[in-house]
Design goal:
6-stranded parallel beta sheet; about 220 residues
Length: about 220
């Protein structure tokens, strides 16, 4: 069962999102806060499975609040960034902060509820337009020498796991691909994130692309 924290400074939007989420049978508790500081405080005070985070908030931004929650909360939740603004800098900032998803506020009610379920399973979810723009951006950018150097810390098997994560493949499918247990995949991913100072699967995906380990459009 899932607990969700809704963060938005517009009371009507916040209440509407909360009411919608309360209709989902597997969401047991929905709370609301109106700014980033309150979101950080709530994440430290209670355990949440998912935070729906607006970007433009009074005080600290949704991106800053996301980064703070994921770095410092005792039991960090999954964060879905929800905004009316389809702007590249927000997408990249959300990914680097460790967000598990990025949806626009014109997302359908069904899609929003499904998104909560997706991220609680440890997967990532992005609006189709966002995914397309990310791929286009990484196609234009050369691989970073700094990020390529960081990969030298990884073993060959860890690089392969990171590559598959970058392709959007979940742990169960990676285990089948590499003929190992899912527990082994999780161990590799834990070591990868430790060596590269990553705090989320989303950041691992960013690293896979920025280092050139994954090339947009490539197959497995």
């Amino acid at each position: 069962m899932t607990r969700v924290l809704v963060v938005d400074d517009q009371e009507l939007v916040r209440a509407g999102l909360a009411s919608l989420l309360r209709t989902a049978p597997d969401i047991t508790d929905v709370r609301e806060v109106s700014d980033g500081e309150a979101a950080v405080e709530a994440a430290h005070r209670e355990r949440w499975d998912v935070v729906l985070m607006d970007i433009r908030l009074p005080g600290i931004s949704g991106i800053t609040a996301t980064e703070e929650i994921l770095k410092t909360a005792p039991d960090p939740p999954h964060v879905i960034v929800l905004t009316t603004f389809d702007v590249d800098e927000y997408v990249y900032a959300a990914l680097r902060a460790g967000a598990s998803g990025f949806l626009l506020k014109d997302t359908s009610p069904r899609r929003l509820i499904e998104a909560v379920g997706v991220v609680t399973r440890g997967e990532m979810l992005f609006a189709p337009a966002v995914t397309r723009r990310l791929v286009e951006a990484y196609t234009r950018q050369p691989a970073s020498a700094v990020e390529r150097e960081a990969l030298s810390e990884l073993t060959a098997r860890e690089r392969e796991v990171l590559r598959l994560v970058g392709l959007g493949i979940d742990n169960e499918a990676i285990a089948r691909e590499l003929h190992v247990t899912e527990g082994t995949v999780k161990t590799h991913l834990y070591r990868i994130m430790g060596k590269l100072s990553l705090s989320s699967r989303a950041q691992a995906v960013v690293m896979a692309y920025e280092s050139g380990l994954v090339v947009p459009g490539q197959a497995r």
